[in-house]
Structure formats: C-alpha cells, structure tokens
Amino acid sequence: MEENLVIVESPAKAKTIEKFLGKGYTVKSSFGHIRDLSKKKLGVEIDNDFKPNYEVPEDKLKTVSELKKIAKKSKTIWLASDEDREGEAIAWHLFDTLELNEKSTKRIVFHEITKDAITNAIKNPRKIDYNLVNAQQARRILDRLVGFELSPLLWKKIKPSLSAGRVQSVAVRLIVEREREIIAFKAVSQYKVNGIFEFEDNKGKKYEVKADLQKAFTTKKDALAFLEKCKNSEFTISDIQVKPSIKSPAPPFTTSTLQQEASRKLGFSVLQTMTVAQKLYEAGFITYMRTDSVQLSELAIATSKNEIQEKYGKEYSKTRQFQTKSKGAQEAHEAIRPTYFSNSTVSASANEKKLYELIWKRAIASQMSDAVLEKTTISIKLSKSNEVFYINGEVIKFDGFLKVYLESTDDENEEQTASLLPPMRLNQKLNYISINADEKYNHHPARYTEASLVRKMEELGIGRPSTYAPTISTIIKREYVIKEDRQSKERTINCLTLNNNVIKDYQKKENYGYEKAKLFPTEIGIIVNDFLVDNFSNIIDFNFTASVEQEFDKIAEGETEWVKMLKNFYKKFHSKIEESTKNVEKSNIEKVLGIDPTTKKQVYVKFGKFGPYVQIGEKTETEKPKYASLKKSQYVETITLEEALELFTLPRNIGKFEENDVLSNIGRFGPYILHNKKFYSLKKGVDDPYSVKLERAIEIIEEKRKMETSGALKEFKEDTKLKIVKGRFGAYIKFNDLNYRIPSKTDWKDLTYDDVVAIIKTSPEKKTKKEVKETKSKSSKSNKSRKKK
DNA sequence: CAGTGAGCGAGCTTCCGCTTGACTT
C-alpha cells in the first residue's frame, strides 16, 4: 500500500517534486486537463441550467486509468494542480473522475518549486474551492457557446469550416483594422535638415560633429530658403544642457515578453520560442515557460544576488520584486528564469543555448542596479535665422544592468544612437562642412508580427500564456491571416546639400515598405471580420473579455451564481444568433470595376470558392468569361480597374529563347516560367511574373539545367569535391559531404574558389554526420505535418 | 506539379485552456 499520491499538472514538475518529497510519496502528472466538454456535440444542456457534459478524451484515457489505479492504493491523495482558475478545475475534475473521497483527498498549492514551499504546502492543505471551479466552468461553457453557435452561422452565411471565437476573432479584427489603417494612410514628406560641423579646441585639434535642425520644412521652397540663410551664417554654440538620468532594468520574462524579445533579438517565431523553451524546461534549465507573472521567488532573488555580487561586484546588485500589471493575470507560476543562476549558459542545441542565455541575462539584469547616465544637449545658433541645431550626447557614468542586457524595441525607424561628445564650450564658433535637407516620408502604422500581436492581446487581456502560440496557428490555418514577407518598393526623394556655399539640388532613390514575417489579413479574414463586427459587435469588442472576466471573478468570489451569469449572457447572444440566421443574407461579394477597353465588357471583382478573383464579361450559353485570381496583396475593396486588367496579362509572352517562346504565368504552385514544354519555378518574393524580364528567365532556365546535368550550380577546377548546390532554402556550399551556408547578401554567382575556401574556414564547426541525419529527419517530419492540411 | 469560378446534396466543419507525446518518411 502506497502512502501518498501527489498529482501535479506537468510531468517535469512531478519529477522534481518527487525528489524533494522522498520516500512515501508518489508524484504523478495529469498532463493538464483530463476532462472536457464533448468534442463533437455542444456538450451543454442549455435548458437544464447549462449542465455541462464532460468526457475524458481518448488521449487521456490512459492517464486517467493509471491515476485511478494508483489512487485506489494510496492512503492520501494530494491534488497539487496550479493555484488558478484552470488549476482548481483540474483538481475538481480529478476528484470527480478518479472517484476520490473527501476524507482522503487534500488540495494543496505552491508557487515555487522548492523543498520549503512544498513541505509548507503539505502542512497547509485545504478543500477544493468550488466557487473557483464554477468560474472556470462558466468560462469554459461561455467559450463553447460562443464558438459553437457563431461558427455554424458563418458556415451558413459565408462558407463551410470557418470558425469564430472570443479570442481568435478579436485577434483577426486587430489585424484587419490595422490593414485598413494602412490602406487609409497617406504618406507625407518633410524636409529634415542636418549639418556636419567642424571646430577646433584650445590646442588646435579639429573635431567634427553632426547636428539636427529641430524644425522640419514642409516644402522644398522653405528648405531651400533656409539653406540660403545658412550660406553666410555664423554658427555658435548657444547652450549646453547637462542632465543626469537613470535607466532601470525590465522585469524578468513572462511568456509574452519572452516571445517578443526572442522574436526581436533571435528572430524566433512564437511557436519556435515555446518549443525551445519547453525543451529547456524539461531539461531542468529554466522554470515554467507559460506564465503571466513577473515575480521571482525569494530563493531566486537571493541566489541571483550572490551570482551578481560574485561576478560583477557589490555595486551592481539591487534586488527588486516586480508587480504584474497585465490584465487578467492569474500568476500561478513564477516569472521565467534560470533554475540555477550560476549557469550563465548551458550545453544544448544552438537555439536552446541562445534562448537560455536570453532568459539568464534578462533575469539577472532585473536584479541589478540602475544605469546612471548623463545626457547632454548642445544648441547651435545661426546668426541669420532663428532656427536651432541640436546635438544629443549620452555618457554612461555607471553601466549597472546595461553590462548584461538591454531590452530592444519594436520601433523600426532606427533612432540615432546618442554617443560621446567631443569637448565643446559655450559660445564656441563652428564652421559647417555640409548641410543637408533630405525629403523624409513618415511611416504607416506597423503591421503586426506574431510577437507584437501577442503583446496587444495580452494588453487587452485576451488569451492566456498557453494559448498565444496556438491562437496564431489557428487564424493562419483558417486562412484569415497570412504571415509573409513583402518586397520593398522604390520612390524618389528630393535632396538639397549645401557645400562651400553652393546648394546642390538632386534626387535619390529610396526603398521603403519592406515587410518581414508580418501578418496580413486575407479576403476571407476581412469578410468574416466584417460580418462579425456588423452583427456581433459586443462579442468582438476589445473589452468583451475584460468585462466577462469581471463576472468570472465575481463567481470566483462567491458573489454571483454561475448559472445566472450564463443565462444573462446567453439570452441576448442566442436571440442575436437567431435573428442573424433569419435576416442576414448569405454573403455574396460582387462589384463592377468598370469596362474593359479592349472587349468593352464589364469587369467584375468577386469572391469564389478559391478566393477573390476578377472576371471580364458575363457567363452565357455561348461564352465563357475570363477569370484571374487577385494577388495576395490586393483586396476586393481597394482593387482598381487598372490593377484588375493587369491580372489578365498572364500568361505573358516575354520573348524567345532558343527559338521557343518563353511564357510567365501563375499556377497551382505559384509563379513559373514555361519554355519548350518545361516548367521553371520563379523565386518566391523575388521574381514577379507580371514584370519578369527575358534575361532573368533565361538565367533561371540555365540554372535549372545546370543542376540537372551536373547536380551543382557551380563547380571548381581547383577542387572537384567542392560544389555550390541548390537546396530548399537556396544555394549552399557542399564540401566533403558537409554543408556550409553562404553568407546572406552574398550572391553565389560572385563566389570565387578562394572566397569559398574562406567561408569554409570561418564557418562554425560542423556537426557529425549522425547529428546532421537527426536534424534532417526532424525537419522533414515537421515539413510533412505542415503540408498535411 | 503548373488555375480553378455549374448545381445538387450527404456529411462534416467549430470554441478556449491546461498539458505532452506518438503515428510515419
């Protein structure tokens, strides 16, 4: 007969706790929830006070029967799931499903996984908190009702298999609304002026400094007039302001901030961050990675203090406890931190190592001193104008936490880095070397990345640490949203430069609008969103979650009865569903764009089963209209006649090669070149079938031929074992069966034998063959599951 | 490998949150 069975949610946690408790205690894991509402059916008896019908899902049967068996043999069962709404519900589901009895069952909670915390918890057991359980049931049932009544409505009114829910629909709405802001955005330009100045110190040493004019000019005329004034002006330092300032470290990571920083600093996707963090957690390197708390345990604060004092010195240590500010935080866990601060790194895969070091630095920095800075602003006065140039300088007097970590920002417009200034005196005279007035456009609001969407969701209190990554996957899988890169566009800007009292007026090309891994709404995402906003504005409201959360809190505190709350909500919601089912017409998007000048027929834009498309003429018994799909970047609401007509230019004959026509077109698998009955894929995001030139097409054809004949893009006579070959992610170097990356921004065509040898020499040490094989099998696996739809 | 867009109708789709494996190439 076993003495004690302790049940926690995670198996990794079970393992550590078992060590702390020692003999007499068996620690098992429930692997999260063990019961849920029926998968296929609604699972809620609406007319029977919303009675939920719970089922143990198939993949949990084994866990449940195993727990049941051990529970039967144990004297005391300790339900040690997390101390939040979901955790309490898990405890109750266990109690109910395992058919435990009240006398032998104890509910315990602990916030940190230390021996003290756990033995303390064992000493202070309590009963299951049914108010908290009911708050969870209300949450679960509400989500089910919303999801399972809204989704079928979409199947009827828009198209089958669509989905809607309290969380995902708001996430889509954020992306749709941001896109509309961007569509409505009109870029405005201004002339921003900066000058390079020169001066001498007492000893005759020369210095150069760059200064920015505070005022920007709206027209070229004004900018020109200002430069005219600069011509014979005197420049004098009129003011020097020195201000002390301090910078404080950011709190240690939560799930959301970890996802954001890993995205900005390491380029990880949200899912990738979670997968890597899970590995680190299972290996015992970090604490739990799904948390909304910024708090650290006493133990963590103490050990980090030791580590900092030893490594950096006493003056670098400043212990801090942060307060969680985010909406709806439940704080069942600690912040994400290394389990042992003495390990500043771990031996693991490259990505695990990178993420671990990020976590270590952030947590350590959070317990370090403020950085002390000195900010200097120098003003330069003109004798012939009232405008003022400024120079900003910053000196770090004491680096503090900056020694370890600096949080990055989402701001894409790189702010100029203030730096150390040369010795300057008040009233010092300066000479200009050049003064530039460049036309600068302002930027549209930034599109969401996965990580910035998570930040916004957290801000609104929508979703939980465990659902941020899956929610993004869902809205991408439903094709409401796509994540992709967009190439930059080019524009011409006007520039004025004053040099030796001569003003040069010229133009420059500038690239703008490049997007990397951003979230764009699709047409169907827009249609579904507009439908929901029109008919269910309360559900899709940004504050809906926050307001129902307040009601759940009241249930948890025993102030409100959960059935009453659901009745209240459902009455209004369901009548709206019925009303929309009856009164709202099936969505049928169709718009006339104008008349096609060549055929004189009407041009339509429509939405069909394969997405948005344009059509010339109507379908009649004798005539079949021409069809073409919209580009991913085009929308029904904004496409113009001109853009629509361009879509009909495919297939495009772009010239002759070896006496055969070369055609460009878009097919089932993307854009391609057709030549002599053979297909050549165009490079995604690089080649555009509407504008690709014959020269480039021939290059692509010859590249493929070369690969087919010799298996290599390029070979070297100096060494036959050395090749440049083409892989799934582009060209790479192959040497002695080992692969080497070609540095980004380098074109393989330009590589000489010596270059390649240099790349191989400077490349990090290669993996053994076995490891390469392992990663290969892993990537092909994930590749396959991605393809499976 | 390489564009689709008819119409009928059976049978199916769908939510959010808590946790990790287990199928094959």
Q: Give the overall shape, derived from the CA principal axes.
A: globular
Q: What average pLDDT do the residues reach?
A: 91
Helix content: 25-40%
Beta-strand percentage? Answer: 25-35%
Distance between the termini: 49 Å
Q: What is the subunit organization of this protein?
A: single chain
The total count of strands amounts to 30
**Poorly predicted ranges:** 767-789
Content-based structural category: alpha+beta
Strand order of the largest sheet: 9-10-13-12-11-14
Separate helix tally: 20
How would a textbook summarize the main sheet?
6 strands, antiparallel, barrel
Integer-rounded radius of gyration: 32 Å
Description:
The chain is an alpha+beta fold and about 800 residues long. About 35% of the residues lie in helices and about 25% in strands. It is built from 20 helices and 30 strands. The strands form eight sheets. It has a six-stranded antiparallel beta barrel with strand order 9-10-13-12-11-14. Helix 3 links the parallel strand 7 (about 75-80) and strand 8 (about 105). About 30% of the residues are buried. Residues about 765-789 have low confidence and may be disordered. It binds one DNA strand of 25 nucleotides through strand 3, helix 3, helix 5, helix 13 and strand 22.
